[in-house]
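User: My advisor, Dr. K., asked me to get a structural model of this assembly before our group meeting. I'm new to this, so sorry if the format is off. These are the inputs:
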Amino acid sequence: MLLAAVDYYRPDTLDEALEALVSTEGARPLAGGQSLVSILKLRAASVELLVDISRLEDLRTIEVADDGAVRIGAGVTYDEMATSPDLHQSYASLSNIAAHTVDAQVRNRGTFGGNLCHNDPINNFPPVAVALDAVMHVTSKNGDRDIAAGDFFTGYFANALSPDELLTGVTLPALDGRSIGYQEVEIGEAAARAVAVVATSNGNIESANVALGCLPIPMRAPGVEAALAGAPTTAEAVAEATASAADGIEPLTDADASADYRLAMASVVAKRAVMEAIEGGHHG
Ligand SMILES: Cc1cc2nc3c(=O)[nH]c(=O)nc-3n(C[C@H](O)[C@H](O)[C@H](O)COP(=O)(O)OP(=O)(O)OC[C@H]3O[C@@H](n4cnc5c(N)ncnc54)[C@H](O)[C@@H]3O)c2cc1C
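Assistant: The format is fine. Below is the predicted structure of the whole assembly, which you can bring to the meeting.
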């Protein structure tokens, strides 16, 4: 199906974009268009004005702070994440995830911010942001605010932004020696996914953040995290600590996998992600 008629505006500045979002009822940001255009073609959403933010320079930078924290602009594409020397040095895991997201065409257009805002359960980055305790930077005509990643994702394809707000960027904290593991079951787009951020010392796990994806809202697994803290870094101990990963999650049944299958896979991907982090994972 073709797009219904919709107005289109490509502002040159962030201020113009924010003004446009409040100028028209039904205005909506357009980033890479890799999800939104499909939705509009399916007539699954009606939009009056597309505000194309893809060329706003303010949204397109990657900044690494002296302490190792990284701020990635919402408009940075997956390809730019994959090829940024700065990101590769400070957060190689993120470069790597971006480099393996879908295909070259989508990577050239799809943006980090669009991926997070869209919150499709198959999207790669929502559980990464939650596992890392990322901070989402948001702006509107009324000012700026920061939202913790754990509060940003509010439901299936939903986030905490109001229609006049833009996500401008995301800060990922310094890893401080922690390693990242990222594991998924690739059935269809993705049936299950887990991200682990782990610190180890002398054969023991000092701390572990574990987030599960392929869910309406990416979720931390607090029971697993508590069981991992202080446990030995052995496969047996990790398997035991991650066995309860499915507790409290409510996956959906879709064309890729049933909810029961996703529940069964939660502990599998959690264990693999933690072991990947322990075995070196990505120090970044
Ligand atoms: C066939 C196909 C398969 C895919 N498979 C995967 C996959 O397996 N894993 C994966 O991670 N990705 C996948 N993607 C890509 C991914 O779905 C999109 O790139 C992403 O969801 C949207 O990013 P975008 O920049 O294209 O945003 P758009 O499509 O332009 O926008 C998506 C939504 O976010 C809003 N939005 C965008 N940017 C902002 C902002 N800065 N502030 C506020 N709101 C904003 C828009 O208004 C819209 O509602 C796939 C894409 C395709 C086409």
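One thing worth pointing out at the meeting: The two ends are 42 Å apart (CA to CA).

User: Perfect, thanks a lot.
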